[in-house]
Amino acid sequence: RKDGCMHCEDPGCLKACPAPGAIVKMSNGIVDFISDISIYMHSPDFHRDTLPSDQLSRLSENVKVAHQGMLPATPPLWAPMEIGVGFQRSPVSSGLYYDFFALNDGRYLVLTMEAMDKEMEGIVNVAMARGMLRMIASLAVNPDEWLSTLNEMLILDSISRRYFVNWLCIDPNTHTLDYLACGKNTLWQLLPNGSIIPHPSTHPLLGEVANPPFTPLKMTWNPGDSLFLSGIFSSSQTSPDTTELLHKILIEQLKKEDHLSPQMQVNALLRKIKTGENKSARSYNMLLLCLKLKT
User: Fold this and answer.
1) pTM here?
2) Which end of the chain is more exposed for a tag (fewer CB within 10 A), N or C?
3) Which residues contact 108 (CB under 8 A, 6 or more apart)?
């Protein structure tokens, strides 16, 4: 703030304030900042300015710590449902992000996102997408249009960025939900009688094509039903054999202990994967979500 300027909360400060040198506060400043970092990482300057290995290692660790700060510390306490969350980390860092939104119209939105790039670049890219999404949410855009709006912003960007996305919008008042996957994934529904229903969804990756036909699956979610969603099933790092194995582990675990709470179900699934015979399944970054509609 300079020369007594008191208009810095206004994005139009530079034009509105007569004081010379007034500071402009952009509403999407953090997005611009992260974008600048991403552009730098794609430029020849990044390779020219590469830090010594020890400094680069410290920078990488700092980025990973910042990545953890983007993730919710605990699941939200939403009255209509119970939520369980679990995360398995691999030696290779991945730009994974998940978030929860309680919408003004009484619906609830759960989103997971994974950048195509890995290591530090993937974390920076998913941080940028997170900032863009939260900016869209703050502008009172219809939640049903958040994905298409974000996709348009990514397509117009000068740097290509693509993301796997799981989009789950829940209306507890009508016992219905919409599910959409950018990439390929399956939402699993566990009924109180033990039946397990798969809901597969496939769409272009977010940021891959302009104006994609985002058409969510619409389904009924009754009290007592549980939903299971995993970030690993949409990942490019997963082979078809591993995906099939993880599906098998998931189904076996749900049939075996369908009485557990959502958090205990997630913990049991991760424990089963970590202690199972297939060692390759332990080498993936894996996000597990379980939601149960209260009776």
Assistant:
1) 0.74
2) C
3) 78, 80, 81, 100, 101, 102, 169, 170, 172
Query: What is the pLDDT at residue 151?
Result: 94
pLDDT score at 47: 53
What is the separation of C-alpha 172 from the centre of its chain, rounded to a whole number of angstroms? 22
Core vs surface per residue 198-224: b (16+ CB within 10 A) or e: ebebebebbbbeeebebebeebebeee
Q: What is the pLDDT of residue 102?
A: 93
Q: CB-based burial of residue 267 (10 Å sphere; 0-12 exposed, 13-18 middle, 19+ buried)?
A: middle
CB atoms within 10 A of CB 293: 18
Contact 231, 287 (CB under 8 A): yes
Neighbours of 57 (CB within 10 A): 11
What's the pLDDT at 55?
A: 52
Residue-level pLDDT at 46: 55
- Only one residue has tokens 């599910």, namely 179
Regions of the chain short of the pLDDT cut 70: 1-70, 89-94, 119, 231-243, 245, 257-258, 276-284
The rounded distance, in Å, linking the Cα atoms of 106 and 206 is: 26
User: By the 8 A CB rule, do 161 and 129 touch?
Assistant: yes
The Cα–Cα gap between 115 and 35 comes to 14
